[in-house]
Amino acid sequence: MRRGWVLSYTSILHFFKIFLGLLILQSTGSLPVMAENTSAPQETVYKKSAGMKTFSIRLKPGQDLREQLEDFIRAANIQAGFIITAVGSINTANLRMSDETKEIKFAGKFEIVSLVGTMSQDGLHLHISLSGKDGKVIGGHLLPGCKIHTTAEIIIGELDDLFFTREDDPETGFKELKIYNK
User: Fold this and answer.
1) Are the beta carbons of 137 and 113 closer than 8 angstroms?
2) Rounded to whole angstroms, how far apart are CA atoms 150 and 63?
3) Can you tell me whether residue 88 is helix, strand or coil?
4) Which of 14, 48, 60, 166 has the most CB atoms in a 10 Å sphere around its CB?
5) Which of 182, 33, 173, 62 lies closest to 121, judged by CA?
């Protein structure tokens, strides 16, 4: 009999918890995220957070993905939020590509491959990746107009002792993330 690695569901779950924990530690500044670099811009700031809350939501057919997230963030008064994970499907996609101003609409049914970004009372900055029936992936900035097909299951995290704002950045011309301690 050939011997090899056999991973149980419990082993995989433990690995995922450890991996997610390390990602959270890294994103909150508890672990070094880049080598010391004296040429780094002063705006590069690492803020450590003491803790996190999580929220789980499920969206239903016909709901607008972005609008529902905006409504939830306002209702829950989330100050420093981010997407932990998301799965589901949409039947229309409305995206904006990097450094573009126009929207691009895609017709068809798409699986949500990933949804990432930051959220606060000042706004959301979300990127989404979608796969079509042929398995090809499209992605960009999530805009209103992405309607849920069957469901969207989303886990949101909020850093307890930080708050995010979006402020005009003369260098980029966009409202960019600013991180503050509460």
Assistant:
1) yes
2) 10
3) strand
4) 166
5) 182
Residue 67: which residues within 8 A CB-CB, separation 6 or more? 144
- C-alpha 118/C-alpha 182 separation (Å) is 17
CA distance 28 to 15: 20
φ, ψ for residue 178, nearest 5 deg: -125, 140
What domains are there in the chain, each with its CATH number? 52-181 (3.30.1330.80)
Tokens of 61: 């057919």
**pTM greater than the 0.70 cutoff:** yes
**Residues 156/68, Cβ–Cβ less than 8 Å:** no
**What are the φ and ψ backbone dihedral angles of 19, each rounded to 5 degrees?**
-60, -45
The span from the CA of 106 to the CA of 95, in Å, is 8
Taking only the tens place, the pLDDT of each residue in 90-124 is 999 999 998 888 999 999 999 999 999 999 999 99
Model pLDDT for residues 26-70, shown as the tens digit of each residue: 555 544 443 333 344 445 556 677 799 999 999 999 999 999 999
Which residues of the chain form beta strands (DSSP E)? 52-59, 81-96, 103-120, 123-131, 137-142, 148-159, 162-168, 175-181
Asked if 177 contacts 101 with a C-beta cutoff of 8 angstroms, the reply is no
